[in-house]
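Before the break, one more example. Copy the sequence into your notebook; we will annotate it together after we see the structure.
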Amino acid sequence: MKLKPAHWIVLACIAFLGAVVVYKAWVTDDAYITFRTCENFVEGRGLTWNPDERVQVFTHPLWMFVVSATYSVTGEFFYSSLALQLLLTLVVAGLLAFRVASGVHAAVLGLTLLAVSRAFTDFATSGLENPLGHLLLVLLFVRRDDPKRPGAVCLRFALLVSLLLLTRLDLLLLVAPVWALTLWRHRGTNAVLATLVGLAPLLAWELFSLLYYGALIPNTAYAKLSTGIASSEKALQGLHYLVNSLVSDPPTLLAVALALGWTGLLAVRQRRFTTGTAWGVGVALSLLYVVRVGGDFMSGRFLTPVFVVALALAISRTVPRRPVWVATGAVAILLAVPWTTPFVDRDYGDEWHAAIDVHGIADERSFYAGRGDLWSSFELLEKWPDPQSFEEARWLRRKWPHDYFIDDLLYVGTLSPEEGWPPQETGDDEGNPYRIVIVRGAVGFLGFHLGPDVHVLDYHAITDPLLSRIPVTRPDPILQGLLPKQAKKGWRVGHYYRKPPVGYVWSLATDENRLHDPELREYYDVVRRITRDPVFDGERLRAIVRRQLGAHDHLLP
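Here is what the structure looks like once it is written out:
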């Protein structure tokens, strides 16, 4: 097939977008929580963070399996994940340009908007699941209905939804309206059966998760949603998240708002509920959900799926060329404006926390500049990622049980003096060695460098099966010392602090339940049975059922 000049223009725009993504390529600390699990999985230690307990520390099973497969071939994570995400992003751009856009002018506008969206280009890499979610959403958008084959339509749609939910469960709200419309249009017994077959991957994972981990949802959901913080406080934080995006990345939410307004106007004029209307409702529901859960600590991360869908809605409409070219020119100007251009990294000064605003929302890519970006990696390859964490991990492994951070944890109250941690020796009087336990937050890079034989206790509870089930500790003592502008609020979104109960660190080091609180000790017995006993042990299976039914909730504080 001979390419027309218009095709070359579109390909040039895709290449430009690729150059932006490569320039901004980076991997965040959170990604290495998944990567450590992938390493354990590929090397035979199970789908675990700490190999001595089964805990689902990732929200994206499909992305985890894709990264694991890549790691089994390449033997490394950083460059492999960046290459994989670049490829996914270019495929998304190609589908939007050649399968979704109504014409060349619409395709160029869409690709320009992708390049100027700080949220999209920031999380086109990062090591997180965003690019895979974008691809599955676009595949759902471009699918075609065939009235003569309702079963096949419902099967394909359900299969894509199943894969999407295995990427992130909370993307359900984004696709639920158009999924419901599809099922209504093709209603019947065949459609129901086809949908159930299509959902088989998701159902299989949920069954595995319940059996292996003892829970239907990931530990991260308990850590970030079951906090005890009032809904009104979280909703206010969610509004701050949207405002942060409008200020730091205007094109993203403005494009979403314009697409929603246009879609709503067309729905009113047509006086019928179309597929486009259903997608618009999904975008609105997703934004409400983001507000409801308080947003995220990474600026823009939760907005990229709605941005991609809104962009697809906008460029799929047939509109006159001249207004679109004018709009494209206006957007292209933003590529040269210092505040919006993707080619200028923002300078927040010398303070390490300056990239975090007063509401705890971070320009995450800027925060990890020099520690997780592609270009810095070439100079520090042997200690990559995050050379500081590499050196800290090496020192801890060599000097343990000494830990220079313990005095700080005791000072702010993260560890109680009664804990008596760390021990003076590496083992007890009978010669039994203690398991190395390191207490930290933001544990991705450090946990990866420490290796599988060190138990990393995460006081933000992302990786811990006990702390994630208890309410957050307020005020957060860590904020007072590290993020003073956050201290008055008492908590930081996405980093909900839990104080380890007295005896917990010793319990992990000795593989014995040494908790001081009697009710919490009884609950921890249940946790230990579920996360440590053989998978098919009868008592363990009964404990899983009882916990799912809430039989032990009264033991929690």
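The longest helix spans residues 78-100. The CA atoms of residues 151 and 189 lie 9 Å apart. Try to locate both features in your own notes.
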